[in-house]
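Question: I have long wanted to understand how a fold can be written as tokens. Here is the record:
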Amino acid sequence: MSLNSKILEELSSYFHSFPGIGKKTALRFTIQLLQQDSDFIKSFGQALVELPDKITSCNICQNISEHDICEICSNPNRDDRIICVVQDIRDVIAVENTGQFKGKYHVLGGVISPMDGIGPKDLKVDELLARVSDNKELKEIILTLPSTMEGDTTCFYLFKKLNDNSIKISTIARGISFGDQIEYADELTLGKSIINRVLYDTSK
């Protein structure tokens, strides 16, 4: 694909590098951006430049934040006694959109996947265990991970690590079909799955 411009070809290749973005879609994005006025393009570029400097991870839950502590962790109206464990920040957004959860989160940064060379040490598991140890008021941990083999493996690993504590460990109800990612579940189904959560069962 030739755009007769090295800059446009480079920009299109950046768009194409994102998951799910094919060459034609990347080209459309590039042309659409080119058709914007200069102020929009400059603002867009400035936002990208500032992204690595202004966005960081929350020191507590590992969610994205513009500060050391994210807005959810610093919100006194959120329930410190319940932690919802999710794979990544997209799942935080998905759960928040349901409006059914008022506790805090913990973002693992992935799931255990031996095929991909991802083990517990590659995830924010130690940080979760430290939070559990430090929070004497903690009552429940909700394992809100994908209904996949990797997600189930991660749930089982976390259960084994957390089961020595006198804390309720639950998982979302199987309104989410096996193989589904949390971020793609519709808000109604995900919301009901959280409300109707059940105790984690290792016999399944």
Notes: Residues 6-54 form a domain with the Helicase, Ruva Protein; domain 3 fold (CATH 1.10.8.420).
